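Forum > Structural Biology > Help requests

Title: Can anyone predict the 3D structure of YgjP-like metallopeptidase domain-containing protein?

Hi all, first post here. I have the sequence for YgjP-like metallopeptidase domain-containing protein but no way to get a structure on my laptop. I'd be grateful if someone could post the structure tokens.
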Amino acid sequence: MGIVRIGQTEITYDLRRSSTASERRITVTPGHVEVVALTSDDEAEIDAFLTRKRQWLFNALRELETTTAKRAVVLRFMTGSKIPYRGRMARLTVHRHGGPHIEISYRNGFLVDLPSWVGEEDQDAVVSSEIKLWLKRRVRRDVLEIASSYGRRFGLKPRSIRVADMKTGWGACGPAGSILINWTLVFAPKAVLEYVVVHELAHLSVRSHGPDFWMYMAKLMPDFARSKGWLDQNQGSMNADLFTSTRPIIDAT
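Reply #1:
Sure, ran it for you. Structure tokens for YgjP-like metallopeptidase domain-containing protein below:
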């Protein structure tokens, strides 16, 4: 690991020598700077390259810091990262294996078995995409189980139930009885997801949000107020952008 000093700022970087690279380059991603040098480069040539690129490197880090500060994201999809799931931040562990398929499991944290054919430069994008798909499948399963349970107990039978990306809102109940649930509720505690599903099921009987509706909600789910309060307080932190990784900034000689 090396250090570049720009004024009072010290920037650490990892140095990688490449026999296939045709030019030196610097790649900046959240929390990580990599310098790729030619195998023929000596320390003086690397130092000279970094000296020429000091201002660019400083500006790139400032740009990345500004971008990530504007939205909550999972910065890197690597061992030790934290993934939002059911109201908590779950630890991510990435293992490499020789099999052909990507496998994901959850037990007090996410474990991703990543095939060796996935390149290091593609790991963030691949792991992000696979975990997002896993989460969507899990929340869909949870929604159907909740709807089935309340349907049996209270005779609430929607025409259809679908889990999808929603630009606004957490759920909807159409005039024909079709229910739509926002998949990003997987980031909330399961009781909050249950509240939203029950809320939309309740609209099958009471279409408005007047006193009759909330009385009916209390009949269906007596403790709904706690989950409603959690959602009101935390809704700003739950969105699909959590899984929109920041693109690396790359500069070369």
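The helical segments are 43-52, 54-69, 123-154, 190-202, 211-220, 224-234. The chain has a mean pLDDT of 87.
Shout if anything looks off.
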